[in-house]
Amino acid sequence: MxxxxxxxxxxxxxxxxxxxxxxxxxxxxxxxxxxxxxxTSVSDNREHIMEALDxxxxxxxxxxxxxxxxxxxxxxxxNTLCEYFKVGLRFDAEAYxxxxxVFKIRGREVTEINRKQAEIPENSIALRNKNxxxxxxxxxxxxxVYVSMPGVPYEMKALMEDEVIPRLQKRFTLPIIVxxxxxxxxxxxxxxxxxxxxxxxxxxxxxxxxAYLPSVGMVRLRLSSSGDDAKILTQKTxxxxxxxxxxxxxxxxxxxxxxxxxxxxxxxxxxxxxxxxAESCTGGYISHLITSIAGSSDYYVGSVITYSYEIKTLxxxxxxxxxxxxxxxSQEVVEQMASEVRRKFKTxxxxxxxxxxxxSGGTPEKPVGLVWVAIATPERVFSKKFQFANNRLRxxxxxxxxxxxxxxxxxxxxxx
Amino acid sequence: MxxxxxxxxxxxxxxxxxxxxxxxxxxxxxxxxxxxxxxTSVSDNREHIMEALDxxxxxxxxxxxxxxxxxxxxxxxxNTLCEYFKVGLRFDAEAYxxxxxVFKIRGREVTEINRKQAEIPENSIALRNKNxxxxxxxxxxxxxVYVSMPGVPYEMKALMEDEVIPRLQKRFTLPIIVxxxxxxxxxxxxxxxxxxxxxxxxxxxxxxxxAYLPSVGMVRLRLSSSGDDAKILTQKTxxxxxxxxxxxxxxxxxxxxxxxxxxxxxxxxxxxxxxxxAESCTGGYISHLITSIAGSSDYYVGSVITYSYEIKTLxxxxxxxxxxxxxxxSQEVVEQMASEVRRKFKTxxxxxxxxxxxxSGGTPEKPVGLVWVAIATPERVFSKKFQFANNRLRxxxxxxxxxxxxxxxxxxxxxx
Lengths: 416, 416
Description:
Structural class of chain A: alpha/beta
Helix content of chain A: 40-55%
Shape of chain A: elongated
Oligomer: homodimer
Number of domains of chain A: 3
Largest sheet of chain A: 6 strands, mixed
Number of strands of chain A: 17
């Protein structure tokens, strides 16, 4: 079964609003075994909306629209749908109840302009909107389903989950699609592709599709397959992932919605261990990642961010001599930082980083993007040098992910 | 001049990735006086990409594409463009230099698969990608311009700003559009709209359009006008902004690409003053914002992140009694944190925050979203209570922005 999404609104085409609705709708459709072939954003323009509908129905069985259902004059989706289907409007008493309800909780009388929100095209069914005044609308015309939803994300989301997906499941016989994501870090996309080329080629036999989705220092591998039996699809996919682990297991840190900081947090929580950080060039970003996880206070106690030489000495006992001789971006300094914050904060592990985030501040010996990362554990202190590029924010993110990954591997090694 | 955007990638159609590229590209095109009529997302599929190109060229003069330029097999945009334009590939020596550069800073040899990144369709010009291995590609065919860019946002952004927009400005005669953004913080969108209603109504006389762009605790007001004379447009706009300042000046912290942390940094730099932070619930995010500014080492010396009670006592001399009686999220504790980090780190200013980021950890007296922010200055220590909502990451961002704004206003007041 094929679907297309049409998002309607001038704000999308001037770049004022990022279209997050499409990704949500696409996720829900895919989970339901419906393949999305195109997402189209058009302005609040009659001809253009109708043209988009004409094109979409050539390719798809299901056309989901969002936007353009507000009570003001710039919202024209409803009237355009009447014109498109050559029908008039009818007043829907059920939809009006929701309009009344929304005004009641706001403590106001329904205005005339909002009474019109309960008028829908004659050939449509109203889908209840618990969160706003514009009902969703469901059209079943010549074997194709068209749905119009408001563009306000939380109104659309409730409509999708409570009304649209259940109705589509009743209306069509849908296949099952299984997606599984494998998250890797520490290996570039092309090196990864080389390493797993034979494995990748073997996926075709099981009708599994593979996609590479790179982000800062990470590559997400997505395996997708479709069929009739979720259990069999899942088993086939998991078998392939087991094979993958034997090839590039050292680079795999998680699956699906895992994050590096979440995976580390879960390990520390399970082991009842704690962590602290001493950051220079990352300026608190590693701490931010760690504390972005709810419940991180169970294992994260604190950090020092030592941007200046003086604070490195004051807080982490890094000797002024060492700083002057070796420089702040050096193995000796970063290892001292890691040891000292671990000792002082009495944690099991610590991370320390020092580097040149850029864009300025580099020298021929120590160019922008040079970073030292140290990890202190109950057993040892060790460090690793990295060379990133010239973009400050990206260097901060790359350093943070590299440091967290170094820690993750060390915690894992401590297990054995 | 009309443009269309085509974003290519299976990950968009299964909802795994939100298409943020389109909004960025649309913003840049609009700023350059180019009207975007449609945004289309299609999968990594030959026929579908070509169909999207065929449809787009019927409506637009400029077609910008992102995605599908990676070195792996699932990326097919480049070969599809060859097929579409009926041309072969040629090796581009300039583009190869960028591939070599990327590998060199990673300290690695260029692999065969990546050497191919420098091959581009014969009828295209390579656009330099400083941040990755896939060059942008510029096609000028039958009076229409087609551009293909990588889907990685920071690679695409640099290409748009450094290459695509300047080339479009040369290639076409574009109308002049003047945009000016006024950045406000500390006032909600609807309150702001009420306060400036009369001023907003007066904009029509000068043919200036206004848009409200809200983000975390901030509202960006964008004034836009178009015409033939940039100077006149700019003067009219600036006059209106001067009027606006007299109405809501206290909420305005900057213009256009300013950031709160950048504005504060510039003030501190100019005054040769310094800052430190003591963070609890923000977990390093305030430090991250401050240090995201290049050159922040001129005024930022460091921070302590005191997530646990023990570290608040150890690092910031907060007495255990005070913590037990008043709790970590209290005026007394946060003011002590601010004073102590300022004293210890010998800075002119300091920020301290303590709160309940959530989603759990709230009590009836201290609900999730409750935050205390303190500022210490050479003259005084003061604090303010905030009540945010239930979303952890949003609470961290809202707290950080509120704290930075409190500091900004205090630094400004110290001037007078």
